[in-house]
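Fill-in record for Alkylated DNA repair dioxygenase AlkB.
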Amino acid sequence: MTAFQASLLTRDDEPHPGPLGDTVHRTPLAHRAWIDLRPGWFTGADGLFEHLLETVPWRAERRHMYDRVVDVPRLLAFYGENDPLPHPALNEALRTLNAHYANEPGWPFRTAGLCLYRDGRDSVAWHGDTLGRGATEDTMVAILSLGTPRILALRPRDDHRRPIRRTLGHGDLLVMGGTCQRTWEHAVPKTTRPTGPRISVQFRPRGVR
Ligand SMILES: O=C(O)CCC(=O)C(=O)O
Ligand SMILES: [Fe+2]
């Protein structure tokens, strides 16, 4: 009995995504964009966070900005559609997303981009994921957030005055859909508050970045 209970406990600790269905809350946005939020999607998110932090080959990137080369303020990793994902729970996440979103333009999700925000100085500036179909057609980008909560801000490209903000917590899912990548921009702003590390896993359709 004790062994049985112990195995139940370990299984409960194993990272895995919960169901989606009607736990997903959709917010329609201007220009036929939308965001879906599913707080607490992942169980065992602690183990997944630690595993990714330690095993993913995180790399720093440098980019040209006008006449300078600057460090991208976060660490990155990318898994294409034929690359084994760094944890089996992410395969399960992909299957769960693809079952839930099967009728949405942009389906299916195929790749996983990972970002590590080491602290509040790490960030991503305003942008849309417009490489690939995101520039011209409706598409989806699904974000699993792990670790320290950070704000994801969104604003219409044609009106920067009132961004909307969602705090993405440990194990939460946010999906951007419809025209969101071409009519809206999103960002993870820097913060001066003491802020621990956050990992985001972005699932995207083929070719979208
Ligand atoms: O970290 C996030 O939640 C967003 C990352 C992002 O927008 C991107 O990598 O394109
Ligand atoms: Fe993005």
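KEY FINDING: The chain is about 20% helix and 40% strand.
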